[in-house]
Amino acid sequence: MRKIVQFVKESHAELKKVIWPTREDVVSSVKVVLISVAIIAMALWLVDVVLLMGIRALF
Question: Which listed site, 2, 3, 29, 39, has its alpha carbon 20 to 30 Å from 58?
Fold first, then answer.
């Protein structure tokens, strides 16, 4: 039981050291991720369309 209490105390102490991001930082990061995902999705869609057209042309 003593090890569990020590673990909780040490975890709490480490969490106090963390520099948490601001709301603006989080929103900015989310925007970057969403835009990146949209660009990659469009690129993959374009590759899919080109490959499909190529396959249809062959057969």
Answer: 39
The answer to whether the Cα torsion of 33, 18, 20, 5 is positive or negative is: positive
Distance CA 56, CA 50 (A): 10
**End-to-end Cα separation, the chain, in angstroms:** 70
- Residue-wise pLDDT for 1-59, tens only, equals 999 999 999 999 999 999 999 999 999 999 999 999 999 999 999 999 999 999 999 98
Q: DSSP secondary-structure letter at 20?
A: P
